[in-house]
Write a structure and sequence with these properties.
- The protein is an alpha+beta fold.
- Among the domains are: 2-54, no CATH class; 63-125, Orthogonal Bundle (Arc Repressor Mutant, subunit A); 134-244, YaeB-like fold, CATH 3.30.2310.
- The chain is 55% helix and 13% strand.
- It has a 6-stranded mixed β-sheet with strand order 7-8-9-10-6-11.
- The longest helix has 91 residues, at 246-336.
- It is elongated.
- The protein starts with a helix and ends with a helix.
- Residues 305-339 form a coiled coil.
- It holds the Pfam family Cas_APE2256.
């Protein structure tokens, strides 16, 4: 298995499987592996002097069936064995009519319990499902904020490229470059890169077949290895590769684009509503402040008016007191001065004797 899962060996050498003739039960199992990896098997029948070739039949492994059963297999892997009913319940979108499709992934061990079959164990062991793709900075900069249909298709290829099973079924070699090319069937988008330490490095991304044929011959593995790379976690919904029908894929991508547009529009509307609510809240706060100021000013006016009235009352009282005091003084003065005093005073002033 180490040779089959080593992408460097797969793309540099012609690997041939050799099931031992003495263990006939191994032959179909190894032949299935040959189909999965596109490798031929050979063996010698008893005393024959000529090799018997078992070429990989033109069958493809339905990766989508496998993707649906992965949660159930991981459930078994965590507990060693689970109830058969629980196994089928963990399969995504499972129906009773599909039972024969999923029996090859398990083996019964008694009391209606099942465990992982050797085939499923091999498939799980060669997966790299939890890894993030390693992508050149140029490709990330080009696709990160692009929501067009070609960009969605390329992001989907990038996400799927970390899985050796999927990558093996969607890889091809082009005679004008030593880079590995990955593509979805019946689509124009392609990736080009290389394998290092069993990880696929996405060096270049091509949106159309014309660009791919024009530009790919300019690149090789040496140039690609000089690029700057980083792990890229693609968190957005770019869909899954569940069909090789180009029209269905394009229709699905168009729906994804429309869905993303609606999500962004809803988000914008929510922000506008939040801003309007905030504006209304601010206006309400401002009105409350103004009302409070009006109340305070009104109270101040009332207090001032009351104070002025009090001052007026005091002034009137003081005025009346002063008038009364003046009248009393005038009255006292008249009593002190005799009646002939002013007549004599007037006479003296006029010069009389």
């Amino acid at each position: 298995m180490a040779y089959l899962t080593d992408d460097n060996l797969n793309y540099q050498y012609d690997l041939i499987l050799n099931p031992t003739g003495g263990y006939k039960g191994v032959i179909p199992f190894v032949t299935v592996l040959g189909m999965l990896y596109g490798k031929r098997s050979v063996y010698i029948f008893e005393h024959a002097e000529q090799l018997i070739n078992l070429p990989p039949l033109p069958f493809s492994f339905d990766i989508d069936i496998y993707n649906r059963v992965v949660p159930a297999l991981k459930r078994i892997d965590e507990q060693t064995a689970i109830a058969e009913q629980e196994y089928y319940a963990c399969i995504i979108d499972y129906t009773e009519q599909e039972k024969p499709l999923f029996t090859s992934f398990i083996e019964p061990i008694g009391d209606n319990m099942v465990t992982i079959s050797p085939l499923a164990e091999v498939l799980l062991s060669i997966e790299n499902r939890n890894s993030y793709p390693i992508v050149s900075q140029n490709v990330i900069d080009e696709l990160q904020y692009d929501n067009t249909q070609p960009a969605l298709a390329l992001k989907r290829l990038i996400k799927n490229s970390v899985n050796p099973l999927w990558r093996n079924q969607h890889s091809e070699k082009w005679h004008e470059t030593n880079l590995i090319v990955i593509k979805q069937n019946a689509t124009a988008e392609r990736l080009a890169g290389f394998v290092k330490n069993n990880a696929f490095y996405v060096a270049y991304a091509f949106r159309t077949h014309e660009i791919y044929e024009r530009d790919l011959p300019k690149y090789d593995e040496k140039m690609a290895k000089n690029l700057k790379y980083q792990q890229w976690e693609i968190t957005e919904n770019v869909g899954k590769s569940q069909s090789n029908d180009m029209d269905l894929l394009r229709e699905r991508d168009q729906l994804l684009i429309e869905n993303r547009y609606l999500i962004e529009k809803i988000k914008t509307l929510e922000e506008v509503m939040d801003n309007n609510d905030l504006d209304k809240l601010e206006e309400k706060d401002q009105l409350e402040v103004l009302n409070q100021k009006i109340i305070e000013l009104s109270q101040c006016i009332v207090d001032t008016k009351l104070e002025l009235e009090q001052q007026k009352t005091h002034a009137e009282i003081n005025y009346q007191a002063l008038e009364k005091q003046l009248a009393e003084q005038q009255k006292s003065t008249k009593k002190l001065i005799s009646k002939g005093f002013f007549s004599r005073l007037f006479y003296v002033v006029k010069g009389g004797r």
